[in-house]
Write a structure and sequence with these properties.
Blueprint lengths: L14 H33 L11 H30 L6 E8 L2 E6 L6 E4 L21 E4 L3 E8 L4 E5 L4 E5 L5 E6 L4 E6 L12 E7 L1 H14 L1
Parallel strand pairs: 1-5, 4-10
Antiparallel strand pairs: 1-2, 2-3, 5-8, 6-7, 9-10
Helix pairs in contact: 1-2
Length: 230
C-alpha cells in the first residue's frame, strides 16, 4: 500500500501492474529527454550572440523536427496499445466475483458457488484493532487465491462507483444497469487496499476495498467456512 511522502506507485502485485510500471518509466524517460532538449535550446537561444544567415530557411531541420516527434509518438503508442490489449484479455478465469457498488459499501458475490455472498463495510475508526488502517479496513475482505486468473464483474445499484485496487492494476467503473468486467492475477500473497474512485455522494471516501490474496488451500478453507456460516 502507499506510504507517507511516497513519490512513486505502489509495489506491483499483478503482471499487468508490472507492465504499467515499466511503461510509466519508459514514457517518463522520454518526457525527461524532451524537456532537457527544450531547456537546452531555450538557454542557447537566450545566451548565444552568434547569428546564422541560413537559420530562416533550412529543409533539413524542418524534416528532422517533423519526423522526430512522429517517431517518439510511435515509441510511446506501441507499448501503450500492447498493455491496453493485455488489460482486456480474459482467458479461462478460475474464479468469477461480482462486485456491486452501493451507497456506501460494496457487496461481493462468488458466482461459482451456490450461496457465497456478503457485504463489505468500512470499519469505523473507534472499532479498529491495533495495526489496522483508518478508512481502509473492512469488516469482510474479498478473498482470492494466489496465481489464479480472477474475473471481476462490476456494477452498481444506485449511482456511479468505481472499483479500484492500485497494486493489482485494476480500475473499473460501476454503472447502474450495466455489467462491466475486468480480470487480474495476484502474483503474490498479501492484503491489497483500494477505494471507490468515482465521486458517489456524501460518504464517497468511506467505502474502501480490501483484497486478500491467499494460497489456494487457504482459500478453499475460507470458502468452506463461509458456506457453513451461510
Amino acid at each position: 500500500m502507499a506510504h507517507p511522502s511516497q513519490l512513486g506507485f505502489q509495489d506491483a502485485a499483478s503482471p499487468v501492474m508490472e507492465e504499467l510500471l515499466h511503461f510509466h518509466d519508459h514514457a517518463l524517460m522520454i518526457v525527461f529527454l524532451i524537456s532537457t532538449l527544450v531547456l537546452y535550446i531555450i538557454v542557447a537561444m537566450v545566451t548565444t550572440k552568434l547569428t546564422n544567415k541560413f537559420i530562416l530557411d533550412s529543409q533539413e531541420i524542418e524534416i528532422i523536427w517533423t519526423l522526430l516527434p512522429a517517431i517518439i509518438l510511435i515509441l510511446i503508442a506501441l507499448p501503450s496499445l500492447r498493455i491496453l490489449y493485455l488489460m482486456d484479455e480474459i482467458n479461462d478465469p478460475h474464479l468469477t466475483i461480482k462486485a456491486m457498488g452501493h451507497q456506501w459499501y460494496w457487496s461481493y458475490e462468488y458466482t461459482d458457488y451456490e450461496d457465497l455472498a456478503f457485504d463489505s463495510y468500512m470499519i469505523p475508526t473507534q472499532d479498529l484493532s491495533p495495526g489496522q488502517f483508518r478508512l481502509l479496513e473492512t469488516d469482510h475482505r474479498m478473498v482470492i487465491p494466489v496465481e489464479s486468473p480472477i474475473r471481476i464483474l462490476v456494477s452498481a445499484e444506485d449511482v456511479l462507483h468505481s472499483w479500484a485496487v492500485p497494486s493489482l492494476g485494476v480500475k473499473m467503473d460501476a454503472v447502474p444497469g450495466r455489467l462491466n468486467q475486468t480480470a487480474f492475477i495476484a502474483s503474490r500473497a498479501g492484503i491489497f487496499y483500494g477505494q471507490c474512485s468515482e465521486i458517489c455522494g456524501a460518504n464517497h471516501s468511506f467505502m474502501p476495498i480490501v483484497v486478500e490474496a491467499v494460497p489456494l488451500e487457504h482459500f478453499e478453507n475460507w470458502s468452506s467456512l463461509m458456506l457453513e456460516d451461510a
